[in-house]
Design brief:
The complex is a heterodimer of chains A (about 300) and B (about 425). By secondary structure, chain A is mostly helical. Helices cover about 70% and strands about 0% of the residues of chain A. Chain A has a two-stranded antiparallel sheet with strand order 1-2. In chain A, helix 3 runs antiparallel to helix 16, helix 6 packs across helix 10 and helix 10 runs antiparallel to helix 13. The longest helix of chain A is centred in the last third of the chain and has 32 residues. Chain A is flat and about 75 Å long. Chain B is built from 20 helices and 14 strands. Chain B has about 425 residues and is α/β, with parallel strands linked by helices. Classes of the chains: A mainly alpha (about 300), B alpha/beta (about 425). At the A-B interface, loops of A face helix 3, helix 4 and helix 19 of B.
Chain lengths: ~300, ~425
């Protein structure tokens, strides 16, 4: 009887009518999915495909099979870029403990703490290009602040960005400045969610200092640590703007990373080797895929564990 | 970045008077894409478009000025997707990718016309690939040593005419506590200028061209001799320290402040040096002196050009525009000191009365018997240029790495020129 009054559940008249509930979410997702498919998924496969060709972006593509990859193996510039990527990955992780340290330090209630917090967060707000410029001037061998300081304490000046051994570390230091601020803000929000009762209980049991931090606070910060880890790894792998601004890959290519080298080979003024550039980006993609797969897997495991 | 100049009927009425006598059968639209985006070149380009428009009442000139750096990548897209009727580019090997992709129109017919053939002979070589001409030049400028005349006077030095004097001058400057040359190699190409000159003076123009065309090994002894000459200067400490951290502009203050006495550069360095306060008594120019007396002097003089894309719609108007650009009067006008401030390509044009331009013009027209090169990164294919210039920079900082660098360049040569 009631069925007659509900048009939705009455006589199914057509496919769309019958499956409205199932179709609606897909319809809402469709625009996003289409764009994702078109601008993210398809280019990934295109890159794979182009990496097997020799192509200057203008004329006809020429199939060369694995030749681009074989050249990569013998290419010293590629090797340097790969090592630099590794340096970025490892050094960048310093942002996590540093951010945690600052967050713990700032997690107190004194007058004006909001001001201090925002000052510490400031470097993350300004553009990477500005960060790069500021650090370039800081390192400048003739008038830079760094060398002025070094000279005033009697040390000989160093040209950080002009020395192939130091340049990459100099850029990473510049990158850490905003990255630490980012990790700090993640931890500050995490610290807000720490359960005061557990702290109280631990304190009654006599825990304090590092042991308190390690056994009571840090486990509760695990979600924040996870996110900090993810953004730092991704941030390290996509480092590009700082390198472009501070050294342009130099001196003599010693500060290149994979993304910058790919840009140079495929898209810069002297580049336009699309196939070779695509091969570099495939390698970078596989490295990123490794991390992303790990992150997705651990997130999935967490979800399941609940 | 994109701006459009649609010349209006009013502008036509204002300036048409003198030009009406010209043939004006041209109709339709003439689309020009230009990379002359810096203030002075931009004014020149807009003025040229307006004048040409005024000369041809039935033709509408549509000018699009694109940022000079962005243009270098955009040209690849618009030449094939949305070709204009006229486009800017550079001479020599820089044209080759577009010629092999059939994107530039062969305009040998224009070069066969006596007006152009006779007056533009000096740049014909730079516009020729595979025996055909692919565009016309509109301006070029000399390279050479710009130096602090007052410092030279103070130390009792004169412009060197050979390699020994060149080095003796440098030693005197070093003894006075200054550096001989400022340079900023962060963006590499400035080191290419030094290599061009040292190699052309050591081995001559023809060898230099053979090398940039990939016909000679980088490990050749003659190339090593060039680097040995270069090393003499490096070992003396002739160049400023930490040059790998500076762009060419950032290297200017060393010369302005008197910490370095000279700069091997293109004529475009004169304007910022004068703006920074160097007077005509303080700034002068000399031709890079001979090293090997047996080879003829040759110079770098990069040429900027106009081309007709193969897919252009209005090729007739485009050809007429190219004739207009290279005409003697227009060349005098656009290269004047208050416009581009460079050298006209037409032999019938007059050079603006400027100390540097006069010296440059005299040098290129009468004292460059060996030939005129474009510049390392225009004579060599782009990829070879980038690998090689990176090697030059490394050599200037670590001269001991020479064997390794040359081995790398030779390997690149084997791959790039097939």
């Amino acid at each position: 009887m009631a069925t007659a009054t509900h048009p939705d559940t009455s006589q199914p008249t057509g496919f769309i009518r019958r499956n409205r509930q199932k179709l609606a979410p897909w319809l809402f997702l469709a625009p996003g999915l289409l764009f994702f498919l078109f601008y993210v998924i398809a280019p990934i496969f295109q890159s794979f495909q182009i990496s097997f060709y020799q192509w200057d972006g203008l004329g006809a593509k020429e199939w060369v099979g694995m030749q681009n990859y074989q050249e990569l193996v013998t290419d010293r510039a590629f090797e340097v870029s790969l090592w630099n990527n590794l340096k970025w990955l490892l050094m960048y992780l310093l942002a996590i403990p540093a951010g945690l340290g600052i967050a713990l330090f700032l997690n107190q209630t004194v007058t004006g703490i909001r001001l201090y917090k925002s000052l510490f967060f400031f470097p993350f707000v300004i553009s990477q290009v500005v960060v790069g410029l500021v650090f370039t001037w800081f390192y400048d061998p003739t008038f830079g602040l760094l060398n002025t300081i070094l000279e005033s304490v009697g040390l000989s000046p160093i040209n950080v960005l002009g020395d192939p051994k130091l340049a990459t570390y100099g850029i990473i230091a510049a990158g850490l400045w905003p990255q630490i601020a980012y990790c700090m803000i993640l931890y500050l929000t995490g610290l807000n969610a720490v359960d005061p009762e557990q702290i109280e209980a631990a304190r009654l049991d006599g825990a304090k200092g590092l042991r308190m931090l390690w056994h009571v606070v840090l486990p509760q910060l695990a979600p924040a640590t996870f996110i900090a880890f993810v953004v730092t790894i991704i941030g390290a792998l996509r480092s590009f703007d700082l390198i472009s601004i501070m050294t342009n890959g130099g001196p003599f290519g010693s500060t290149r990373v994979l993304s910058f080298y790919m840009f140079e080979k495929a898209l810069s003024e002297y580049g336009f080797r699309m196939g070779y550039g695509a091969a570099i980006s495939v390698v970078l993609f596989l490295i990123m895929l490794f991390f992303i797969a790990y992150f997705l897997w651990s997130m999935w495991r967490q979800e399941k564990g609940r | 970045m994109l701006t459009r100049l649609m010349t209006t009927a009013a502008a036509v009425a204002l300036t048409a008077g003198a030009a009406l006598a010209q043939d004006s059968n041209l109709t339709g639209t003439l689309k020009i894409f230009s990379d002359m985006s810096n203030p002075a070149p931009r004014a020149v380009m807009e003025d040229m478009a307006a004048r040409f428009d005024a000369m041809h009442p039935n033709l509408t000139v549509e000018l699009t000025v694109i940022d000079r750096e962005a243009y270098k990548t955009q040209i690849r897209n618009f030449l094939s997707a949305n070709p204009p009727d006229v486009a800017n580019w550079y001479a020599a090997n820089r044209m080759r990718p577009y010629i092999s992709a059939n994107l530039f129109e062969d305009i040998s017919d224009l070069w066969a016309e006596p007006e152009i053939a006779e007056n533009l002979a000096s740049t014909k070589g730079a516009m020729t690939i595979d025996g055909k001409q692919w565009g016309v030049p509109y301006t070029y400028y000399q390279w050479g040593v710009y130096y602090r005349e007052d410092i030279y006077k103070e130390l009792g030095l004169s412009e060197p005419t050979n390699w020994d004097e060149f080095k003796a001058n440098c030693q005197a400057i070093l003894d006075s506590g200054k550096k001989c040359f400022t340079i900023g190699t962060k963006f590499l190409w400035t080191a290419g200028g030094w290599f061009d000159y040292l190699n052309m003076r050591t081995n001559g123009y023809d060898f230099h061209m053979a090398l940039t065309n990939g016909e000679v090994a980088w490990t050749d002894d003659r190339v090593r001799q060039t680097f040995a000459n270069w090393r003499e200067l490096i070992d003396m400490g002739a160049f400023i320290d930490n040059h790998q951290s500076y762009s060419w502009q950032e290297a200017l203050p060393f010369m302005v402040n008197g910490e370095a006495a000279a700069y091997l550069m293109g004529n475009f360095a004169v304007a910022p040096l004068r703006e920074a306060g160097l007077s005509t008594d303080q700034l002068d120019f000399y031709q890079f002196p001979a090293i090997n007396p047996d080879v003829a002097l040759a110079e770098d003089a990069p040429t900027d050009t106009f081309h007709i894309p193969a897919g252009a719609q209005n090729k007739e108007a485009a050809r007429e525009f190219l004739r207009f650009v290279v005409s003697a009067d227009n060349q005098t006008k656009i290269n004047a000191g208050d416009a581009l401030g460079q050298l006209p390509v037409n032999a019938q044009s007059s050079v603006d009365d400027d100390e540097m331009l006069n010296q440059g013009f005299a040098m290129l027209s009468s004292n460059s018997p060996g030939g005129i090169a474009q510049f390392f990164d225009r004579d060599a294919p782009a990829e070879m240029a980038s690998v090689a210039m990176e090697g030059f920079q490394e050599f200037m900082v670590f001269p001991d790495n020479l064997d390794d660098i040359l081995g790398r360049l030779e390997q690149a040569r084997g791959r790039i020129y097939k």
